[in-house]
Amino acid sequence: IVGIVALGVFSGAIGGLLFGFVMEKFKSSRFVNNSTKIDIDEDEQIIFQRPANHFKGAEGVGGKLYLTNKCLIFKSHKFNIQNHELSIPLNKITKIDRYKIWGIVNNGFRIHTAENTTERFVVEKVNEWYVHLQNLPETIVA
User: Fold this and answer.
1) Which of 8, 16, 72, 124 is 20 to 30 A from 43, comparing alpha carbons?
2) Calpha distance 97→128 (Å, rounded)
3) d(Cα 73, Cα 57) in Å, to the nearest integer?
4) Is the Cβ–Cβ distance between 88 and 111 less than 8 Å?
5) From CA 62, how far away is CA 32, in angstroms rounded?
6) In sequence order, what DSSP letters do the residues of the chain get, joined into one string?
7) CA-to-CA distance for 110 and 99, rounded, in angstroms?
8) How many CB atoms lie under 10 A from the CB of residue 68?
């Protein structure tokens, strides 16, 4: 029994490492980069961008989140069930707050809008996102 448990722990660790490696390669792949490109206006500049998930119902839709000088844009990659693009003008953001995924992992934030909608995102570099979002003049960061 000890040998079976040890084999299970070893296999789980190897599987976790392999999964992490494959996910890292996937998010930086040409497929993801090409399918998450956004079109912006000539006078618009990308300030910050990172891979992210946008929650639509129970699905964490994978893609890329962009912060420009005009809006927050999420564009999903094609390997999702609910492919979409979401654009939130910065002047429509009323509040930004952080939250923990499953009450444990502190890598998410919520965007509250003037239309009384709330959008949830899980991002890489959540602290860097928060610094950029705090510098938005029209928003309230909690």
Assistant:
1) 124
2) 14
3) 18
4) yes
5) 9
6) -HHHHHHHHHHHHHHHHHHHHHHHHHHTSHHHHHHT-----TT--EEEEEEEEEEETTEEEEEEEEEESSEEEEEE-SSSSS--EEEEEGGGEEEEEEEEETTTEEEEEEEEETTS-EEEEEESSHHHHHHHHHT-TT--B-
7) 7
8) 19
The pLDDT-based confidence of 80 (bands split at 50, 70, 90) is: low
Which residue in this structure is represented by tokens 């912060």?
67
- Six token digits for residue 76: 């999903």
Residue 9 is encoded by which pair of tokens? 């722990």
- HSE-CB for 75 with a 13 A CA cutoff: 14
Measured distance CA(45)–CA(64) in Å, rounded: 16
* pTM score of the predicted model: 0.74
Token pair 């000539």: residue: 42
Per-residue pLDDT band at 77 (split at 50, 70, 90): confident
